[in-house]
Structures are given as C-alpha cells and as structure tokens.
Design goal:
This protein has seven helices and two strands, in the order H-E-E-H-H-H-H-H-H. By secondary structure, the chain is mainly α. Strand 1 and strand 2 form a beta hairpin.
Length: about 200
C-alpha cells in the first residue's frame, strides 16, 4: 500500500511538472519589447507557472520545471545553440531557489513577499554577472555576434550605454529587476486560486 501511494505521489508530481512546464514553454512565445530596453531584451511571463510550482511543491521542483521548459524551447525554437536556454535556466533557477527556500521555511504572505523580493534581487545580480562574464562573450565566440554590436543596440535606446559594463548596469540589471517584479506580482494574484489544485 505504501509503495502504491509513493508511486501515485511521484506520478502526480511528474504530471504537475509536465503541465506547468508546457504552460511556461508556451508563454515564452508571448514576448513584449519595451522601448527603453535594447531589442534583444523582451519581457515574458513564462516564469509565472514556474514560480507557482516552486511555491506549491518546493524549490527543486521549480528548477525541474525551469529545466523542462527550456529543453522544450531548445527543441522547438532554439536558435542560439542552446545559449539562450542555458541563460534562462541558470538565471531563472537562481530566482526559484531563493524565493522557494524562503517560502519553504516561512509559509506566509510575508514569507512569499520576502522570497520574491530576494529572488528578484538575486536573479538580477546573477543575470548581470552571467551576461558580463559568460553569456555575451559566449555569443561572440559561438555565434560570431560581436559584443560591440550588442553594446550598439543598447546605445540606440540609451546614449549612456557605451561599453559592456554600462550595458549590464543600465539595461540587463534593470531588465531582470523588472521581469522579476512582474513575475512576482502576477504570481501573487494567481497563487491562492491555483495552489489548492497543485497541493491536492
């Protein structure tokens, strides 16, 4: 009986992970370009179902949903040799692990808010460091897309962007802060309505 219950529990978790991953993957196609960010930075809300899953089932389940979401995107749309998906997975997972662990040990509205705030800050910092030291140089090496060209895209919308450092500080950092804030707000509005389904 215990084995049947354990198998059923694992099956339910895998089913929920699959459903949330597919929803997150589909939401990746709904992107909005903002005039005050370079054209390669677009807002999407694909992390909302991931964060909902993180709060409902735990931080590492959130990482699993994030992984499946990006694997699906790599298979069906990947156009950057997996670099874009790797970036989204690492940066998004930093958000889920931070927010998820805070909420795990402080299951209240204040815990959720604290987790989302800290998660947004951590994601913004990790995103900035990853872009500066790894991702943008990797785009240049793997895809032949010069960092100077990326900086030039930033200069178009903000004359104060003149090099990689200013691009990160004035575009990538605030972009991730905004993305984390939007994800948090929508999750806050939806979580109470959908969490009973995920926990039942």
């Amino acid at each position: 009986m215990e084995k049947v219950t354990a198998v059923r529990k694992k099956t339910l978790i895998l089913t929920r992970v699959s459903v949330l991953s597919v929803i997150a993957f589909l939401l990746m196609y709904v992107e909005v370009a903002l005039p005050f960010f370079p054209e390669f930075l677009k807002i999407d809300i694909s992390n909302v179902p991931v964060l909902i899953g993180t709060f409902a089932m735990g931080p590492w389940i959130g990482v699993m949903i994030m992984l499946v979401k990006n694997l699906l995107h790599l298979v069906f749309k990947g156009a950057t040799m997996g670099i874009g998906e790797l970036a989204d997975f690492i940066i998004g997972s930093s958000f889920m692990l931070t927010a998820g662990y805070v909420y795990k040990y402080r299951k209240s509205l204040s815990g959720a808010l604290l987790g989302m705030v800290l998660g947004t800050v951590v994601m913004a910092v990790v995103g900035s460091l990853m872009n500066y030291f790894v991702l943008l140089p990797l785009y240049q090496i793997a895809l032949g897309f010069p960092v100077k060209a990326v900086v030039a895209m930033g200069t178009k919308v903000n004359k104060h962007i003149v090099d990689l450092k200013s691009l990160v500080v004035l575009s990538i950092l605030p972009f991730n802060l905004l993305k984390g804030s939007i994800t948090s707000l929508i999750t806050l509005l939806l979580y109470k309505r959908v969490s009973p389904i995920l926990r039942s």
